[in-house]
Amino acid sequence: MQDYPPFEIIDGDPGLGLVILADHATNLLPERYGRLGLPESAFERHIAYDIGVEGVVRGLNARLNAPVVMSRFSRLLIDPNRGEDDPTLVMRISDGAIIPGNHPITPEEWQYRLEAFHRPYHDAVSRTIGAVAERTGKAPLVISMHSFTPAWKGVPRPWQVTVLWDSDPRAVHPLLDALEAPGDVVVGDNEPYDGALRGDTLFRHCMKPGIAHALIEIRQDEIGDAAGIARWVDRLAPVFARLNADEALHTYEIHPSRTGPY
């Protein structure tokens, strides 16, 4: 359909049993879209991507040798962390920025973006999770990495790191405990938003099949430069390794979603 790669798989050892995802890793766009009618400065903001996350997941891959799947398109084009029927899949306005290239959008263009970007990314996630499961003969542990703004509508956010989740606590509770244990950062539980989102990446690939998982959000000022990224890789890598060593997190166990029946 196109030459533009909508995802990147960073190779790792599938025998480890761990998969790391980054839905909003980059602010890239294919040339055909220009800048969607936005100024270049918009692509340095959180509306375009999760600032700092690409560096974190590359660092975690280098440290742990776990496979990583990253998107290679801006969330302004189409949001891979939304279900196909989600009305916010293609945003017309984001945090005050009107996106001319998304409004109006024809049904044909909507469908093209699904087929060229959204679905290939999710196919890559499925293949990677499946390869790990096939190699180990067990359920993988899946961690999805995101970042959030230091403030929202002028209100500071106190958490340096948060964990979002729906109803499967298996990876979440030990992850929260490990993040809180040093006592030097403020840890949020389902902050600054709720992790139960019907049709999102973890709903689709983990909640429905019963795979243990968690979504980590790091505040963007914590990972806005190389030093901050390195500090968080140092903090998270041993935590992920300990969680991944827990056999209880490598079984299939379906939990009902707070968003409603599957």
Automatic annotation (TrEMBL):
InterPro entries: N-FG_amidohydro (IPR007709), UCP029730 (IPR011227). It holds the Pfam family FGase. SUPFAM superfamilies: Zn-dependent exopeptidases. Keywords: Hydrolase. One of its GO terms (molecular function) is hydrolase activity. This is N-formylglutamate amidohydrolase. It comes from Shinella zoogloeoides. The lineage of its organism: Bacteria, Pseudomonadati, Pseudomonadota, Alphaproteobacteria, Hyphomicrobiales.
